Amino acid sequence: MCRRTRQIVSFALGARSDQTGRRLWNRVPWEYRQCLTYTDVWETWQNVLPEESHLAVGKETGETNHMEWWGNTLRQRLTRFVRKTLAFSKSEAFHHMVTKWFITEYKLHISHAWSASLIS
User: Hey, which residues does 56 pair with through a beta bridge?
Assistant: First the structure.
């Protein structure tokens, strides 16, 4: 997530593993890889992200609040990330499509809110 615009710049679905962390980092656009990256203190981030541009911080700093908020929003609106039920396909391809659709809708909402704030 871009700290300034709150736009999602990449995502990866999978287990909380180094492999998923690497897949996510490889999807981050080059321009964002040059920026300072704030994360929680999850060990995978220490293993995957470059030491020179990575800063692991605790929740008390407030530096990861926007990502905590995003994760909560995602779990509330897409219940498929909370528990397994019969209400959705268990196909990883469908999880990916639904997540991408949700992020697209979110980006449209954010861009309209950003535009409106510039006009007023």
Answer: 39
